[in-house]
Amino acid sequence: MFIYLPEIKSRSGETVDYQFNQELADIFDEFSDGGNLKLMVSVSHSGEEILIGGSMEAGVAAVCSRCLEPFTQTVRTDFMEAFTIVKSSPVEDDPEQLAEEAANMLTVSGDILYLDEYIRQLIVLTQEYSPLCKPDCKGICSGCGTDLNQSLCRCLDQDSDQIDVRLLKLKELKTGN
Ligand SMILES: [Zn+2]
Ligand SMILES: [Zn+2]
Predict the structure, then answer these.
(1) What's the chain's average pLDDT?
(2) 30 CA to middle of ligand 1, Å?
(3) 108 bridge partner residues
(4) Beta-carbon neighbours within 5 Å of ion ligand 1
(5) Domain ranges, residue 92
(6) What is the CA(163)–ligand 2 centre distance, in A?
(7) 31-40, 126-135, 152-161: lowest mean pLDDT where?
(8) Global pTM?
(9) Is 133 a member of any domain?
(10) For residue 161, what is the enclosing H or E element?
(11) Contacts with 33 (C-beta within 8 Å, 6 or more apart), sequence order
(12) 75 in any annotated domain
């Protein structure tokens, strides 16, 4: 994902809209199990800055923090950023390096603003730390590991059964003596 800047600069002060709709896996190794990425970006040029603003929605592979089932977490956020235009050095024409400069230093040099790394960081920052497959996920039983979304477990029954069994054995021992 990149923005070609000469067009933006020639229309200084105007906002130009872009849309990207891609598979996450095609862009990032990190999200190889991910779904779709939808990106709407408005770009404008002002003085020494390239301004971008828009919204992002991505389906990211996640594991539910309660039931431990894998699911696709929808990550959504709005963003707004100003990239300072800096002089390009002849060494820095590697797209990956330019993408990292854009993301980490919020600078842009040359004719192209590479957004991949910026968007990757945005996804990581927006991902929930303890995602849930659904808001009311019941999780798994700490006693038997049953997924309580799928079925009820009988831990309570089993506990009382076990006590009964032990009591019975005690009784057997006593009667044996
Ligand atoms: Zn869950
Ligand atoms: Zn249980």
Answers:
(1) 87
(2) 22
(3) 85
(4) 64, 66-67, 133, 137
(5) 2-126
(6) 16
(7) 152-161
(8) 0.77
(9) no
(10) helix 155-176
(11) 25, 61
(12) yes
